[in-house]
Amino acid sequence: MRTIFTGAARAALVLATCRAFYLPGVAPRTFRYGDKVELKVNKLTSVHTQIPYDYYSLKFCRPRGGIKQATENLGEFLSGDLIENSPYHLFMEQDQFCKVLCQVDLTKSDVAALKTIIREEYHHNWIIDNLPAASIVDSEQYIITAYAGGFPVGYQDHKASYLFNHVNIIVEYHPLDDGSRVVGFYVEPFTVKHKFANDAKWDGSGEAPPLSTCDKSGPMVYEAIAAKQDVQTGPVIFTYDVLWRASNVKWASRWDIYLSMDNAVPDKVHWFSIVNSLLIVLFLTVMVAMIMVRNLHRDIVRYNRVLSDEEKAEDREESGWKLVHADVFRPPDKLPMLFCVCVGTGVQVLLCAAIALIFAAAGFLSPANRGSLATAVLVLFVMMGIFAGYASATLYKTFKGRLWQKCTLCTAFAFPGICFGTFLTFDSLLYYYGSTGAVPVASLVSLLALWFGVSVPLVFVGAYLGYKREPLAYPTITSNIPREVPTPQPWYLSVWFTTTVGGILPFGACFVELFFILSSMWMDQYYYVFGFTGLVFIILVATCCEITIVLCYFQLCSENHRWWWRSFLTSGSTAFYVFAYSVDYFRRLGADEWFTYVLYFGYMGLICVGLFLLTGTCGFLACLWFTKKIYASIKVD
User: Fold this and answer.
1) At a CB cut-off of 8 Å and minimum separation 6, what does 473 contact?
2) Is the separation of the CB atoms in 374 and 305 below 8 Å?
């Protein structure tokens, strides 16, 4: 009984600790009546250009005490975030109407810059208490509420450009006994050609004279606008209203409506993706089972059967996959070192993706913790370097390679070097454009430190451990003279055909979820269903393994023992279909800048190279296991 009470006490202590635990940067903050609630501004973004800009690069109102940049993590820098203070003053549960923010005089260059920004459909991205602004856009026909991507700078109508110079800032709060917590944040922009009452003038100092174009007794409404603020040289007055609304939504659930976009994408769509993927896996599993139970079992029984005297007298000639037992584990004759490097890097990417998905599904990499996903993926990739070195070294030693230093260096620098070189090229172009997407020098130094100070040493440690262990053991002995592959081979077993066919089913298992992932990357949408992503990832890996085993079996039955590169290319071709899909998806961006093409296809190409290594490694490891199993089950003379 005492043991039970002790266990219960410990469990209660653990639960109490868990309830007090919050992720860094996302702990709740309680405001009392009249407390200042800070509104911060982030980068200006456009899905059409993919080039973010600093909010204050345009002639917007600036805070009187100067611009101050918020502290950001490495992931935020890599995503181009630039969070700064703003001149807006909000106080908890205190409504404000017709507040004059500032008056700016637009020059010809300012007008040209604003027209370009409006034409390219740039959006503001504001933040209150780590909660991004949802937008409510009014027009004569409809009202649109969007929970991702911020709110527009302005809009075009018949070649005329209009600037949103008035905003209704709507903040929802959940009242508590000791104060209130922010649980919702909306911005409703308007374009209003403001005028001071009695044609008064204002030089920007002191208190602004009253306006004749807005009402201090209530918020701005679309019907009350007499004239719109077009983008032209001269003075522009910026104003705002603040409305506070009590809400029953609790702080822990405040992100739900953002992530679900007010149920714009129902869960049944993701379940459809899972069911679609499971059907493909079921189909492949049945095929593999038929091969294992029928063909393969029949082959093993036939190969292991003791021949009678009559069959020995006939000197029966065997055929099939048994004949290549002395060559099936012969190292690839083409680029064996490159193969080892690809497998090692594939193991690194595979483990990085799997662990990142586990943490994301557990809630540690929520969109509420801005920049956490990019930081986690980067750190995990660096830490998995030890497994990359171990895998490539073990395989290269099994191939009896002698240039182990070169193999290890290629593993440490090949794929990371391609990634960093591409990133540095794009970073230089973004710096030329004056974009916030250009990573600061300090962050570049941090990346280099992670690469050379952590990743490279870990790869060498893994390689050392790999070379110290025994080579992979095979169930058969490889002959000194390689066996000729019979020619001609069936057309359906050619490299091009198996590579083309091998990627179709794995791509079909993940293409539905791929749409939402690309939308989060390029369309400023939130992605949070990492549980579904984890299931799709498992199904993708299983599909790659099964399709590669099936095609490998057919290849061995045709007495073709060169399966190493074939197995890698068969499942790795999934990446080519993903890239082809990304080409079709690019039309949604409506890009008109040459740099957007370079940026999009450059990064998608890089992602697909990583996917090629991941899926190719899965296919190879599955075939290695399969060949070792079947050749260990037969008697070889």
Assistant:
1) none
2) no
Give the residue carrying structure tokens 């595979």. Answer: 350
* Cβ neighbours of 426 (radius 10 Å): 19
Residue with tokens 């490097």: 341
If phi > 0 it is left, if psi is from -120 to 50 it is alpha, else beta; for residue 298 that is alpha
d(Cα 392, Cα 123) in Å, to the nearest integer? 46
Residue 267, C-beta contacts closer than 8 angstroms, at least 6 positions apart:
529
**Closest by alpha carbon to 423, among 385, 389, 378, 453?**
378
pLDDT band at 186 (very low <50, low <70, confident <90, very high): very high
CA pair distance 215, 99, nearest whole angstrom: 10
What is the CA angle 413-342-553, rounded to 5?
175
Q: What is the pLDDT of residue 4?
A: 40
Give the mean model confidence (pLDDT) for residues 300-328. 59
Question: What is the C-alpha separation between 357 and 351, in angstroms, rounded?
Answer: 10
| Selection from 115, 77, 93 nearest residue 181 by Cα | 93
Quick: pLDDT tens for 134-152: 998 876 667 788 888 899 9
CA–CA gap between residue 221 and residue 225 (Å, rounded): 7
Instruction: State the amino acid at position 224 in one-letter form.
Output: A
State how far the Cα of 568 lies from the Cα of 553, in Å rounded to an integer. 14
Residue 118 and residue 144: Cα distance in Å, rounded?
A: 18
Burial 605-616 (b: 16+ CB within 10 A, else e): ebbbbbbbbbbb
pLDDT single digits (tens) 191-217: 999 988 888 888 777 788 888 888 888
CB-CB contact of 634 with 325 (8 Å): yes
Token couple for 413 = 């620098």
Name the pairing type of β-strands 134-138 and 151-152.
Answer: unpaired
Which residues are bridge partners to 244 per DSSP?
A: 171
Distances (CA, A) of 180 to 30, 133, 187, 473, 516: 5, 19, 20, 66, 34
Smallest CA-to-CA distance from 513 within 490, 539, 493, 492 is with 539
Please tell me the distance from the alpha carbon of residue 271 to that of residue 482, in angstroms, as a whole number: 50
Q: What radius of gyration do the chain's Cα atoms show?
A: 31
Pairing of the two strands 36-37 and 84-85 = unpaired
| Residue 92 backbone phi and psi in degrees, to 5 | -50, 120
Q: In what order do the strands lie in the sheet with 126-128?
A: 84-85, 39-41, 126-128, 131-132
DSSP notation for 437-486: TSPPHHHHHHHHHHIIIIIHHHHHHHHHHHHHSPPPP-SSPPPSSPPPPP
In the predicted structure, residue 383 carries a pLDDT above the cut 70: yes
Tokens of 292: 């294992």
Compute how many other C-beta atoms are within 10 angstroms of the C-beta atom of residue 147.
19
Task: Please name the residue that has the structure tokens 């490539």.
Answer: 392
Phi, psi of 106, rounded to the nearest 5 degrees: -85, 130
Residue 533 parent element (H or E): helix 530-557
Q: What share of the chain is helix, strand, coil (3-state, %, to 5)?
A: 50, 15, 35
Within a 13 Å sphere around the CA of 396, how many CA atoms are in the beta-carbon half? Answer: 33
